[in-house]
User: Fold ABC-type polar-amino-acid transporter from Arthrobacter terrae.
Amino acid sequence: MVKADGIEKNYGKLQVLNGIDMEVKAGEVVCLIGPSGSGKSTFLRCINHLEGIDGGRMWVDGKVMGYDIKGTRLHEQKDSEVCRNRTGIGMVFQHFNLFPHMSVLENLMEAPRLVLKQKRSVVRERALKLLDAVGLAEKAEAYPRQLSGGQQQRVAIARALCMEPKLMLFDEPTSALDPELVGEVLKVIKDLAQSGMTMVVVTHEMNFARDVADRVVFMADGQIVEQGPARDIITNPQHPRTKAFLASVL
Ligand code: ADP
Ligand code: MG
Assistant:
């Protein structure tokens, strides 16, 4: 589903990603962990080509998403194709980024209607089912400001799913929440993982990573330092940097 081959990304002189190779198979759940500033968010944005890359190549679902913008373009690709491929990738951010002037239901329906041009009745039915699945059926007509942070994040997840993505990317989905609201959001993500969705989740919730991820990838300074089965990495890390990081968050 995802193949990253030698991804490099610079901001000016700062090298943020320093040759990331990573594969995610269909149905796999990968948790990306690492210290702040290690390039986790940048890497997620490179997966769906919200960021151009300076080296390497990114495939999603067998299609080239991003390519080395300086090097030779082996695969000529129009921006419109990148946009079309991007519609198959859902992304959920730390700050839910709901449309404040739209009801919950309208938030879910907007992109499928506008981008995918799907029929109103079809989208509405799907949106209501998704709201039910995240436990918010009764909030369809509410506005984001009337919801708790945990509820808003569940709406954001349902909104991403309403595009029927093949891949979901989560960037610290619970980091902005009050501690008592973290569990309800993790449960929704866990249910989604168990439904077979392919996902990459950046998180500091190590219990979640241990229980839900098939694989954990530890990044530091723009490189993958260590990766493996979730239980191995979290309970028995090998690399000193992984050990130090886990000691600081557990
Ligand atoms: P993480 O998500 O692991 O905390 P980020 O990917 O957000 O790390 O950031 C990696 C590095 O890139 C940091 O040093 C950060 O300051 C820098 N960075 C991120 N986004 C930008 C940007 N748009 N412009 C300049 N520097 C950036
Ligand atoms: Mg980040």
